[in-house]
């Protein structure tokens, strides 16, 4: 069990590119932290630096208060689960799981006991003598987990461990991983590009974009108070509607009409962000509304997603390809909603739920 | 820290590469240099006392000698003709083995047999096949003809032996290139209305170009140093010497180190020119 | 359609096999029928084989070929594996230079080395000895092993080594316990290719030897003469050619299975 501290950690490559810029992060003992962001944001590089698989260019990495920058991976007592699982194809499940223990020269009976215990925990007992080639994707994933937990390491690092599974299994394994982590109480750093995974798994989420940490916080905080436009657009599905707005005395002028808001202290132009789930088609007392034709309506069963397309001034009449030159607004409605495709609908929202961002810096002015 | 660990990796790499590199340099580098020096000397082992620096005189001797130029012409002819035939045949074999599901394994195995046979052994087979009286192929010719004793037929047989032996290698190289052409691309092309020939010329060939160029480069340089087949089939008689044969005879038969070394250097230069032409003009990329 | 491909298959097989069958047939011909020019023997005999196996020079040549081939292959494999691993996995300056240099040697006209090596080996006392042939064989087998092995190493996912490192392995343990077991099929293939190269060589074998002390089998065959046996050496040469070819053909069949194994090595990706 361990506390991991990244103190001003950066990664620069010899060609001059900076993959990770000045990360400051303290991961508490027993905490489950998610690194999330689009591909190329530096999350995997950060994980590899914690693992010791990549050099730290500057800054300090401490595990339990000790500087470990110079330590080889094997001297950091950290286990890792890889995206491809990286199971050794020439070894059986048992040998794969025993590998770290035999390298540590543990006595044989102890190795057998630990492997047996981990196999039981992950329901792998029946598969111990199989080779990885004869396992399903989900089983391989569990073996990879097993190889990480047998050692009882200070921390787990997981690099997109579920991205090679099909959607259904992914959801299933997600909950198993969460349960396992709670049970073992091992500090875990988990990398993913999937915001749903990030929201459901972590105690805290670290959102990264082009090598820079955008925001750190519990899932609700990131959802409720996104620090900037990037976080706002990244967290939540469907993503937040981000509408360019002119600030006037009566409020914010946007394509969906005027959003009542006090204009004092705001720059002349802002971006207004409204989550799709902030809309509803029943009246809200004191709320604002807009009326427009429903362009596309997707019935998901538990919800309906309505798309509205607004012609933006610049494209004019000639615009309007199938991919839509106009600005789109997405609303997530109750399944009982009476909105119909091709018919007008009136949607209500609470102006207090609108986020306002500075268009230049992207900073959330309302958070 | 970074530098330190990088340094460690570099040091490890250095140690790992050192033995292989040292051997290769010791066995090629020094002899090449030595060969160059010898080529500037009068060095005939039959007259050990009569050795001296003679500048480029050896080069003048070799380049003014019609036998050298005949050998050069024969080498060039054999190289160009056999590589051209191999390319066509190799492509056919590659396509056949690639396309046939039935007996694919058998064909692939059998095709490798010529590659596995010792060149000298195969050369004797060809020699006896064309020897009047002994050979089954000679029997097909008009009575009294002895193809290995005339220049043109002998060269044709040399080319035949060379083509037979090395087509499998060409086919193997081309097969790896063929495997790089995505099946889906060919399906897309046929959906777009391309017929079999168009698919081959417009999709397969362009995508295989790097593989083809590498195969051609390898085989051209290999054919240029042809020795075994000629040694067994004619031993260079009737003006069928290749440059390698003539250099060998100057060394082992004539014991003339100076002239032999001069030929060595000239062959090296020819090979360098061929490689340069392939890489610069055709843009063949070195694999790896 | 299937029939046409089948026909082409048969042509390919005939192309590859008939010249081989001819040598085999010649080797079984009785001396009295050896000049009958028929494709198949009319009178079978084993005397050609009996003859070459009583020939001390040929037996000595076989021993030389096997010994020199195995030693050269082993050394080339050890050094080639080391260099290939460095090329496939490590970043170091001069990597491209090394690749280029080995490519250069792979394409090198061997005759250009024969003259200086002849002279150098004579002065060093290596002429007409095993080491005198082993050294150039290693040199020319090395580019082959380095190329083939580095391709095999590159096929093994780097993530496996990273996993081994995370599991507590030293770089050597990661190489020895994870990479080598997975590279075995590739290493076997490479070793066979290197051995075939050494076994097949003729130019060095006749230039750098003068007696049966180090002369390999292919070179020995070219020195077969009829005079000692009171007859034309055709039958003996054919029999000897078959004998030196058999091990290679067996290797090639084995090698073929390795290629298939290499193609189905999808387990590594799993």
Can you walk me through this structure?
The complex is a heterotrimer of chains A (367), B (288) and C (270). Chain A is 23% helix and 31% strand. Chain A is an alpha+beta fold and 367 residues long. Chain A has 2 domains: 226 residues, Rossmann fold, CATH 3.40.50.300; 119 residues, OB fold (Dihydrolipoamide Acetyltransferase, E2P), CATH 2.40.50. Chain A is elongated. Chain A starts with a strand and ends in a 10-residue tail after the last strand. About 2% of the residues of chain A have low confidence. Chain B has a single domain, classed as MetI-like (MetI-like fold), CATH 1.10.3720.10. A two-stranded antiparallel sheet of chain B has the order 1-2. Chain B starts with a helix and ends in a 7-residue tail after the last helix. Chain C is mostly helical and 270 residues long. Chain C is built from 11 helices and no strands. The longest helix of chain C is centred in the first third of the chain and has 34 residues. The two termini of chain C are 37 Å apart. At the B-C interface, helix 1, helix 3, helix 4, helix 5 and helix 8 of B face helix 1, helix 3, helix 4, helix 5 and helix 6 of C. Chain B: It is a multi-pass membrane protein.
What's this, in brief?
Helices cover 23% and strands 31% of the residues of chain A. Chain A is α+β, with helices and mostly antiparallel strands and 367 residues long.
Quaternary structure classification = heterotrimer
Instruction: Give the mean pLDDT of chain C.
Output: 84
Percentage of residues in DSSP E strands of chain C: under 5%
The run of helices and strands of chain B is: HEEHHHHHHHHHH
Strand order of the largest sheet of chain B: 1-2
Name the CATH homologous superfamily of the largest domain in chain C.
MetI-like
Shape of chain C: globular
Percentage of β-strand residues of chain B: under 5%
Determine the structural class of chain C based on helices, strands and strand pairing: mainly alpha
Low-confidence stretches of chain C: 259-270
Q: What's the tally of helices of chain B?
A: 11
> CATH topology of chain B, anyone?
MetI-like fold
Transmembrane segments (chain B): 12-37, 67-98, 105-126, 154-182, 203-221, 266-286
Family (chain B): Belongs to the binding-protein-dependent transport system permease family.
InterPro entries (chain B): MetI-like, MetI-like_sf, Sugar_ABC_transporter
Membrane topology (chain B): Multi-pass membrane protein
């Amino acid at each position: 069990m361990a506390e991991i501290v990244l103190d001003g950690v950066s990664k620069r490559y010899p060609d001059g590119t900076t993959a990770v810029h000045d990360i400051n992060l303290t991961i508490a003992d027993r905490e489950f932290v998610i690194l999330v962001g689009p591909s190329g944001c530096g999350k995997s590089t950060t994980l590899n630096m914690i693992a010791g698989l990549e050099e730290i260019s500057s800054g300090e990495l401490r595990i339990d208060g000790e500087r470990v920058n110079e330590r080889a991976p094997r001297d950091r007592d950290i286990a890792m689960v890889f995206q491809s699982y990286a199971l050794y194809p020439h070894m059986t499940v048992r040998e794969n799981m025993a590998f770290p223990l035999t390298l540590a020269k543990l006595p044989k009976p102890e190795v057998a006991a630990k492997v047996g215990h981990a196999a039981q925990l992950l329901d792998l007992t029946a598969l111990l003598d199989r080779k990885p080639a004869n396992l399903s994707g989900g089983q391989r994933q569990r073996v990879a987990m097993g190889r990480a937990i047998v050692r009882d390491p200070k921390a787990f690092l997981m690099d997109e461990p579920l991205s090679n599974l099909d959607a259904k299994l992914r959801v299933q394994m997600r909950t198993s991983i969460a349960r396992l982590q709670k049970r073992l109480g091992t500090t875990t750093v988990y990398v993913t590009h999937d915001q749903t995974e990030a929201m459901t798994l972590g105690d805290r989420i670290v959102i990264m974009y082009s090598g820079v940490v955008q925001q750190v916080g519990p899932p609700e905080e990131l959802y409720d108070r996104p620090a900037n436009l990037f976080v706002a657009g990244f967290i939540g599905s469907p993503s937040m509607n981000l509408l360019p707005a002119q600030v006037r005395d009566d409020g914010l002028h946007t394509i969906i009409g005027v959003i009542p808001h006090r204009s004092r202290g705001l720059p002349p132009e802002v971006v207004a962000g409204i989550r799709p789930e902030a809309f509803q088609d029943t009246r809200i007392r004191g709320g604002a509304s807009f009326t427009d034709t429903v362009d596309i309506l997707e019935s998901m069963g538990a919800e309906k997603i309505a798309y509205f397309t607004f012609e933006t001034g610049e494209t004019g009449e000639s615009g309007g390809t199938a991919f839509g030159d106009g600005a789109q607004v997405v609303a997530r409605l109750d399944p009982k909603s009476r909105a119909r495709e091709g018919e007008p609908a009136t949607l209500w929202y609470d102006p207090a739920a609108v986020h306002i961002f500075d268009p230049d810096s992207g900073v959330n002015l309302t958070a | 820290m970074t530098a330190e660990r990088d340094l460690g990796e570099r040091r490890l790499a250095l140690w790992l590469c050192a033995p292989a590199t040292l051997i290769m340099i010791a066995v090629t580098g020094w002899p090449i240099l030595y060969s160059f020096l010898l080529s500037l000397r009068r060095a005939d082992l039959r007259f050990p006392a009569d050795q001296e620096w003679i500048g480029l005189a050896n080069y003048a001797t070799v380049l003014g000698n019609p036998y050298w130029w005949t050998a050069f012409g024969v080498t060039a002819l054999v190289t160009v003709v056999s590589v051209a035939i191999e390319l066509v045949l190799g492509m056919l074999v590659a396509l056949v083995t690639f396309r046939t599901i039935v007996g694919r394994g058998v064909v692939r195995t059998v095709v490798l047999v010529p590659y596995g046979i010792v060149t000298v052994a195969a050369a004797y087979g060809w020699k006896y096949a064309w020897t009047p009286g002994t050979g089954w192929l000679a029997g097909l010719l008009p009575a009294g003809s002895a193809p290995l004793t005339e220049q043109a037929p002998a060269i044709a047989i040399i080319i035949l032996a060379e083509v037979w032996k090395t087509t499998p290698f060409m086919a193997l190289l081309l097969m790896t290139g063929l495997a790089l052409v995505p099946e889906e691309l060919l399906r897309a092309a046929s959906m777009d209305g391309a017929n079999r020939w168009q698919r081959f010329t417009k999709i397969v060939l362009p995508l295989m170009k790097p593989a083809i160029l590498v195969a051609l480069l390898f085989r051209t340089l290999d054919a240029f140093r042809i020795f075994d087949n000629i040694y067994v089939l004619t031993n260079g008689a009737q003006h069928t010497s290749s440059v390698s044969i003539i250099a060998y005879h100057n060394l082992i038969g004539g014991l003339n180190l100076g002239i032999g070394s001069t030929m060595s250097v000239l062959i090296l230069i020819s090979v360098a020119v061929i490689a340069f032409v392939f890489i610069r003009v055709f843009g063949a990329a070195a694999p790896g | 359609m299937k029939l046409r491909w089948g026909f082409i298959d048969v042509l390919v097989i005939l192309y590859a096999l008939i010249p081989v069958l001819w040598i085999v047939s010649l080797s079984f011909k009785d001396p009295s029928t050896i000049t009958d020019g028929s494709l198949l023997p009319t009178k079978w005999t084993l005397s050609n084989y009996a003859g070459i196996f009583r020939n001390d020079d040929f037996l000595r040549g076989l021993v030389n070929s096997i010994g020199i081939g195995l030693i050269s292959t082993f050394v080339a494999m050890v050094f080639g594996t080391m260099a290939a691993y460095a090329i496939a996995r490590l970043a170091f300056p001069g990597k491209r230079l090394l690749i280029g240099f080995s490519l250069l040697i792979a394409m090198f006209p061997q005759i250009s080395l024969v003259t200086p090596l002849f002279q150098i080996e004579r002065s060093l006392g290596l002429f007409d000895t095993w080491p005198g042939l082993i050294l150039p064989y290693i040199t020319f087998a090395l580019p082959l092993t380095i190329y083939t092995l580095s391709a095999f190493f590159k096929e093994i996912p780097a993530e496996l080594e990273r996993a081994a490192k995370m599991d507590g392995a030293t770089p050597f343990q990661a190489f020895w316990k994870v990479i080598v077991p997975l590279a075995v099929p590739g290493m076997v293939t490479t070793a066979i290719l290197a051995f075939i190269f050494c076994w097949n060589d003729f130019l060095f074998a006749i230039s750098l030897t003068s007696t049966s002390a180090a002369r390999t089998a292919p070179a020995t065959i070219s020195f077969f003469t009829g005079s000692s046996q009171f007859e034309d050496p055709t039958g003996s040469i054919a029999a000897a050619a078959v004998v030196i070819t058999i091990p290679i053909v067996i290797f090639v069949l084995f090698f073929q299975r390795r290629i298939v194994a290499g193609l189905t090595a999808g387990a590594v990706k799993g």
